[in-house]
Write a structure and sequence with these properties.
- It contains eight helices and six strands; from the N terminus they run ααβαβαβαβααβαβ.
- By secondary structure, the chain is an alpha/beta fold.
- A six-stranded parallel β-sheet has the order 1-6-5-2-4-3, with helices on both faces.
- Helix 5 links the parallel strand 3 and strand 4.
- Helix 5 packs parallel to helix 6.
- It is globular and about 60 Å long.
Length: 249
Amino acid sequence: FGARIGPGQRADEQLEGAVAVHNLLASQGVAYLADEVGMGKTYVALGALALFRHFQPDFRVLVIAPRENIQKKWLKELRNFVAQNVRFPDLRVKAIDGQPARPLVACGNLLELLREATLNPSRDFFLRRTSFSLPLTGKDAVDPAAAKRLRDGLREHLPWLPDDIFDLRNKQAFKENVAKALCCALPRFDLVIVDEGHNLKHGFGKDASARNRLVGLALGHTDEPVDPRRFPHYGSRAQRVLFLSATPV
């Protein structure tokens, strides 16, 4: 961890943090890394990921960044971490050419995540939380043209979806059914990293934001009753979850 910042207390703390996060995730399945801005939360998270992948080369990861610029920063930092902080090409974290051993995929929206995960789930996926704000104009009912584009995109990969889940009369129900359908097709991730996790502080209940609920449903939130005949294979898609935040709640 001192490769870029030099040896010393800060590098030692990042190393200790990476080991602690790894151990919490391994034993509890969830961890919350709460550190001030500039303390290297991203690198600590990447260190924990590198530890997991050392022992399990097929370890699957999904990173949910808050917005596009942070999503791009994660891609850049992962490449930097692998190039500068991983000592040798182990073909698990670091390839012979010094690049990440697994391809990195940046997804601009939920349909891109669905398409890329269906094409090859054995890659590292980077999504942004704003993608869960589905562009469906209208106060209560759904805009037909926008809904049709979303429905047709889902049906490319999920042709068995029943027609009744795309009822346009209830905007929130339509959105939540889209997230449930997405969950049915996603692979199970060994680790989901949520950057700026405080954005989810209002939880998953009925009073939570539509975006929060869609994040939960897309990852198979188990508190939600789901008809297995309409949404086969719906269930948890995150074996472990790591939250990062400089302003924890």
